[in-house]
Amino acid sequence: MTPPIKQKNLFGQNFDDNESDSDNDRRNDQRQYMKRAQRRVESAEKDLATEDTSVYSYDEVYDQISSSNKSRRTGSSQKSSRYIEGLRNAKKERELEKLRRIEDKIKQSQQKVITDESLRSKEAFVTESYKKYKDKLNKKVAEMNEEVRTVPEITFERTLLDMYGTEKENSKGENKNSHEPPLVPKAAQSCALGGGLNVRKKPSLLNAKLVKFLVSRITPEELEAYKQRYLLRKRS
Q1: Number of H helices, E strands in the chain
Q2: Cα distance between residue 27 and residue 22, in whole Å
Q3: Which helix (H) or strand (E) element contains residue 7?
Q4: Which positions carry the signal peptide feature in this UniProt record (predicted)?
Q5: Same domain, yes or no, for 133 and 116?
Q6: Would residue 60 count as lying in a domain?
Q7: Which of the residues 72, 101, 177, 180 has the least number of beta carbons within 10 Å of its own beta carbon?
Q8: Tens digit of each residue's pLDDT (9 = 90 or more) over 98-133
């Protein structure tokens, strides 16, 4: 049996030849595409080989940053704790210094108030009101000494003793609610003059006020202490 004869198209071309040519072109295109893809892959591999792979280690970098921040926070907390501790120590030192000053003031007040040797071993509590009273008393005593300088025979201790004795005598017979002025000490009422004359001198207003002030303010213990000092000086 003879094979069939292939018919040609109108342009004198064979259909089978056209199909074979198109297949060849398609294969060539595929080969070219594969080659280009292969070249791109090779170039990408070369680039990856030359690049630093550490830029993609995100976890490691994050861990390093976290550890550095933690160490920084720890250091700052240690600094702040040292600063706070220093402030506390400074406050304690100031409190101790304040207590020392208060103790020194109390000791000085005790030395001023306690004059009798028998009372040296006892403790005394001095208030601010008492300190103010002592200052006021010292001013009055200074004014009295300034005035008494004109009368040689009158001394402060003698005035206190006379006043103390007069006050004791008056307290026995007088009423406590009476408003009569206190008696003026004898030593303050007279002064020695030349020629054998002894003239009574009226007490000045300052002496009267001072005696009234001393009678109302000075305690019996203080008067007793003045008396003891006066007697010691007289004996010596």
Answers
A1: 6, 2
A2: 9
A3: none
A4: none
A5: no
A6: no
A7: 177
A8: 877 887 787 777 676 655 555 555 555 567 777 777
